[in-house]
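TASK: fixed-backbone design
INPUT:
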């Protein structure tokens, strides 16, 4: 992913901008911050940012001097200037020196997103150009691997864009089979002694696991394995459709667990998502694998946790005791806050009174919270529900309670808060989420649109929206958006005298080369050929 270095002498602004960037786009990573130009130059080599966002007036070295040195020493790094109205003369000087944009402080979210979208496109194009023109196999391979990692990460995160999908062949990604399954392999930290973990580079454990997984993938599958953290590896497996093939993925995961345990004394837990019928739905399979991994808290590590057998199992609700379960689920998911809290306390009280095993009570409480956590993930409201806490922390806090009264009250409070969040969301959502997305696309098709951005508009997780969208319309989000843009371009070609480049931009295509390629793929003709053939005159 492209990275950003933030330079400003006000710490509160640095923190605020870093928080805004994290919320605005998962495609950008803040690699570091600096208080002034001197500190920024000291961190350039370590951070290696793609973009520097800098203030102008700073002590020791101001933004003008910093940009001059960056332009000379790091010509590939883009600069964005942020400052106040009184600094406009300085900002104008920055733009003359090559700054990509000048934004007022504090920046508007939409304006910042627009600038970053343009820079991301430039970054992708430059990555491809560097790959094509790289001198020597080593540099070319490194660029390719970085872009490959970015595309794979975007695929499983549900943020991949159409232009990135067109780069698959260039970075050596090929998926010849009709089905995809995502596996997430997580190192069990308790299988590594504290001394062994601290003495070694933690990333080496993930490297070892990724290489191991890649070697065990059978020839009848196509697998792409990449590291997603010091202790997490993701495997995107492409295979034939059908239940037997998906079962083979689970058997592969079990072989990985067994072989790593046997050969290294390490243990891993593997979450296996459901099979996806198209590449865009791979994000759903990844989300399911991540969800399945959460059940490690209940079932323990050193095992394979398939989504269908944990969070996604249709019969799982029947395992939850008490006749009040149905009332509890309805109250929470329908957003009836008071009823949800009362039903949760009653359900927990009944659970405690029926079981004499504290461990069984803890497992059942964890399963129930994870069931509703899955619903919150689908509705993209986890942060609104849990705040800064992770669900692991919430479960650990519940499991530490030994008082019946405290447990029922805490459990009721947790589910009551979720019901309150869902109640607020229901009040905002007057139409079906897919209808809301369709209206958003039709209004903004000429602008940069992503699945994650559309999902945010209707308060849904991107992978869940992708599934809903295709189920409702029979085409993926990207296919619908592309078809709409092509149809709009056809109208303009036939009924206007606009130039081709203007039509491309007005129809939502990032550049004319991309427009020509997509249009010809959809119609069999280039835009010029289409205009000439259907208007019966020379193209304008």
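OUTPUT:
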């Amino acid at each position: 992913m492209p990275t950003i270095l933030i330079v400003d002498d006000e710490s509160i602004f640095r923190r605020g901008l870093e928080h805004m960037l994290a919320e605005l786009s998962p495609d950008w990573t803040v690699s570091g911050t600096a208080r002034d130009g001197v500190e920024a130059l000291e961190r350039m080599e370590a951070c290696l940012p793609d973009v520097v966002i800098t203030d102008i007036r700073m002590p020791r070295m101001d933004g003008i001097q910093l940009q001059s040195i960056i332009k000379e020493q790091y010509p590939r790094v883009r600069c964005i200037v942020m400052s106040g109205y009184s600094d406009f003369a300085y900002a104008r000087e920055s733009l003359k020196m090559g700054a990509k944009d000048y934004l007022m402080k504090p920046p508007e979210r939409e304006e910042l997103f627009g600038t970053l979208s343009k820079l991301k496109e430039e970054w992708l194009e430059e990555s491809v150009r560097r790959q094509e023109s790289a001198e020597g196999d080593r540099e070319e391979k490194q660029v390719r691997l970085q872009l490959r990692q970015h595309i794979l990460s975007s695929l499983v995160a549900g943020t991949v864009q159409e232009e990135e999908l067109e780069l698959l062949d260039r970075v050596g990604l090929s998926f010849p089979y009709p089905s995809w399954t995502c596996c997430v392999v997580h190192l069990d930290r308790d299988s590594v002694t504290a001394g062994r973990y601290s003495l070694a580079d933690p990333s080496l454990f993930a490297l070892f696991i990724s290489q191991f997984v890649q070697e065990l993938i059978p020839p009848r599958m196509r697998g792409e394995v990449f590291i997603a953290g010091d202790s997490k590896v993701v495997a995107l497996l492409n295979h034939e459709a059908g239940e037997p093939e998906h079962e083979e993925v689970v058997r592969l995961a079990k072989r990985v667990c067994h072989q790593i345990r046997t050969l290294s004394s390490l243990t891993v837990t593997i979450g296996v998502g459901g099979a996806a019928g198209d590449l865009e739905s791979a994000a759903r399979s990844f989300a399911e694998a991540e969800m399945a991994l959460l059940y490690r808290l209940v079932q323990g590590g050193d095992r394979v946790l398939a989504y269908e057998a944990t969070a996604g199992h249709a019969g799982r609700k029947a395992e939850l005791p008490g006749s009040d379960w149905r009332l509890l689920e309805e109250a929470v998911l329908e957003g009836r806050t008071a009823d949800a809290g009362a039903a949760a306390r009653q359900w927990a009280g009944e659970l405690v009174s029926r079981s004499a095993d504290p461990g069984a009570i803890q497992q059942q409480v964890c399963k129930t919270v994870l069931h509703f956590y899955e619903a919150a993930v689908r509705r993209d409201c986890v942060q609104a529900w849990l705040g800064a806490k992770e669900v692991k922390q919430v479960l650990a806090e519940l499991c530490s309670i030994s008082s019946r009264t405290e447990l029922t009250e805490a459990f009721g409070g947790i589910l009551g808060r979720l019901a309150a969040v869902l109640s607020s969301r229901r009040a905002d959502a007057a139409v079906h989420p897919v209808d809301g997305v369709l209206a958003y696309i039709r209004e903004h098709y000429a602008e940069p649109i992503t699945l994650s951005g559309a999902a945010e508009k209707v308060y849904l997780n991107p992978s869940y929206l992708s599934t809903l969208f295709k189920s409702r319309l029979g085409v993926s989000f990207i296919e619908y958006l592309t078809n709409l843009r092509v149809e709009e371009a056809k109208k303009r070609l036939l009924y206007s005298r606009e130039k081709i480049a203007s039509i491309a931009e007005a129809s939502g295509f990032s550049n004319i080369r991309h427009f020509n390629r997509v249009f010809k793929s959809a119609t069999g003709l280039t835009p010029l050929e289409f205009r000439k053939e259907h208007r019966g005159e020379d193209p304008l």
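COMMENT: The beta strands are 3-7, 29-34, 51-54, 78-83, 101-104, 179-187, 222-229, 232-239, 268-272, 304-306.
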